[in-house]
């Protein structure tokens, strides 16, 4: 999936992935996609819930070798 920007949040524990994601999303234009990489297992539920509550779309998420990848489109 093509992203506009990538955010490396690997090694960070909650709530830092969410805080960094919010800051990065604030800098994007509507329709652009942020790709986030994290190792925090709680990120799956946290980022899914955050994207919904913030009005953005979680386009895709995968897990590969302990790294969780999320693609969130700014609405």
From TrEMBL:
Gene3D superfamilies from the entry? Answer: TusA-like domain (3.30.110.40)
Segments forming domain UPF0033: 7-31
Query: Which family does the record claim for this protein?
Result: Belongs to the sulfur carrier protein TusA family.
Q: What is this protein called?
A: Sulfurtransferase TusA family protein
């Amino acid at each position: 999936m093509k992203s506009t920007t990538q955010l490396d949040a690997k090694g960070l524990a909650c709530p830092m992935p969410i805080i960094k994601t919010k800051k990065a999303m604030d800098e994007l234009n509507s329709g652009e996609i942020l790709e986030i990489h994290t190792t925090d297992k709680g990120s799956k539920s946290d980022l899914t819930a955050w994207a919904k509550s913030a009005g953005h779309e979680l386009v895709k998420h995968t897990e590969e070798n302990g790294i969780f990848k999320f693609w969130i489109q700014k609405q």
